[in-house]
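Subject: Protein record for review, amino acid sequence with backbone structure tokens
Concerning: The relation between a protein's sequence and the shape of its backbone.
How to read it: Take the token row as a discrete description of the fold.
Enclosed: The protein record, placed directly beneath this head.
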Amino acid sequence: MGVQDLQDHVLVQCDFEIFGQVQGCGFTKCCRDNCLALGIKGWVKNSKQGTIMGKMQGAKGDVGKMVDWLSKTGSPGCKIDKAEFTNWGTCSRLAFTDFAIRF
């Protein structure tokens, strides 16, 4: 295992907000399904401002894959204008036990 492999397994966390036409197209469900497949913990929800908001925690490499998905791909039929990722940090353990859709 090389240095990059070790860095990819460091536990990281961040908050995210996705802007554009992202509600009403299954974005939260697709986000949850992708995070569960990657072993990422946290939550996602529709905001009253028409954005998608959430928090994710997991291995740095897996969180990086979700950052890419949230920024460029999203769910079928969505139109992502902008993705913001804030409150980055490392964590010694995961604070969540699963990845949930919040209401």
User: Anything to note?
Assistant: Helices lie at 3-8, 27-38, 60-73.
